[in-house]
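Meet my pick.
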Amino acid sequence: VQVVESGGGLVQPGGSLRLSCAASGFTVGSSSMSWYRQAPGKKRELVARITSSGGSTNYADSVKGRFTISRDNAKNTVYLSMNSLKFEDTAVYYCAAVTWGYWGQGTQVTVSS
């Protein structure tokens, strides 16, 4: 089983990024999939989740209206589209199938001018 995040990088405030989470060894459509993040000195926090059916999503209050989680079952990939990025969005972002205990290694997102 592998969960591999990509798409992180350095972006200016107000900018956008799209993170990708490519899974192998299991089907993303069979599990709720989540994005978490951890900023330096802070606890890991849930950013967004999408149910296995794809019919329901939920977001941390801090990212509502700015971030969108989606899934492409054909590509076995989950995405996190991030708009209007703020300094406080700087963190390592992790993709996870928490039910199965599958986590990726994370991708760094840095928002800086």
In short: The mean pLDDT is 96. The two ends are 37 Å apart (CA to CA).
